[in-house]
């Protein structure tokens, strides 16, 4: 077993300090050390987006990072976003539009949607689809997810440019 190392960071607004295995992924750290299991693990190779969290405000794959790489940083998970009400309208829209079935992809989808709308207040449908290109959903066909994000962008006051999408 390798020598354990100290880590200190901020998670969902709270200071956290632990002694951990240096090879522990950020996703495992959040799920196992902090019991923040809203960060899901699907592929564990950066392909599905189920494990997305915000690192200093930017969406990152928690499966691809060692937890120690987040030392001194600010991490926000789906639990933090939800508890502070930052994604209440997105959650409501996903619910209303049936934009989830099994729900496995949903926390990653919401993290992506939140990050997309925080840097682009009026994305077109093409831009929303492009923004979701790293998030896999095997259930919904994506249409309701795109509809939900588009609705929230509009309700927040964003007016998207005309889309090339024909649906
Ligand atoms: S579990 Fe991280 S991208 Fe799939
Ligand atoms: S709702 Fe099942 S994977 Fe997206």
Helix-strand sequence: EEHEEEHHHHH
The helix content is: 25-40%
Radius of gyration: 17 Å
Portion in strands: 5-15%
Q: List cofactors, ions and other ligands.
A: FE2/S2 (inorganic) cluster
Total beta-strand segments: 5
List keywords for this structure.
167 residues, alpha+beta, 6 helices, 15% strand, binds FE2/S2 (inorganic) cluster
Commentary on this structure:
The protein is an alpha+beta fold and 167 residues long. The model has no long low-confidence stretch (mean pLDDT 94). The chain is elongated. 34% of the residues lie in helices and 15% in strands. Strands 2-1-5-3-4 form a five-stranded mixed β-sheet, with helices on both faces. Helix 3 crosses helix 6. The site of one FE2/S2 (inorganic) cluster has 12 residues, from loops.
Would you spell out the secondary-structure blueprint of this structure?
Layout: E1 5-11, E2 14-20, H1 26-33, E3 52-55, E4 58-61, E5 74-76, H2 78-83, H3 88-96, H4 106-119, H5 125-131, H6 143-155
Parallel strand pairs: 1-5
Antiparallel strand pairs: 1-2, 3-4, 3-5
Helix pairs in contact: 3-6
The protein binds FE2/S2 (inorganic) cluster (FES) (2 copies).
The site of one FE2/S2 (inorganic) cluster has 11 residues, from loops.
Concise account of the structure shown:
By secondary structure, the chain is an alpha+beta fold. It has 6 helices and 5 strands, in the order ββαβββααααα. One FE2/S2 (inorganic) cluster binds next to loops.
């Amino acid at each position: 077993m390798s020598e354990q190392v100290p880590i200190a960071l901020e998670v969902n607004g709270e200071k956290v300090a632990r002694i951990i295995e240096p090879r522990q992924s950020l996703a495992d750290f959040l799920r196992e050390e902090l019991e923040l299991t809203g960060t899901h693990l699907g592929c564990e190779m950066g392909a599905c987006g189920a494990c997305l969290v915000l690192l200093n405000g930017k969406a990152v794959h928690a499966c691809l990072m060692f937890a120690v790489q987040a030392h001194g940083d600010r991490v926000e998970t789906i639990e933090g976003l939800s508890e502070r009400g930052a994604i209440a309208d997105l959650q409501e829209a996903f619910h209303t539009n049936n934009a989830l079935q099994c729900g496995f992809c949903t926390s990653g989808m919401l993290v992506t949607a939140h990050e997309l709308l925080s840097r682009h207040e009026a994305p077109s449908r093409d831009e929303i689809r492009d923004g979701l290109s790293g998030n896999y959903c095997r259930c919904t066909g994506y249409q309701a997810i795109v509809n939900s994000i588009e609705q929230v962008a509009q309700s927040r006051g964003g007016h998207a440019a005309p889309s090339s999408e024909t649906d």
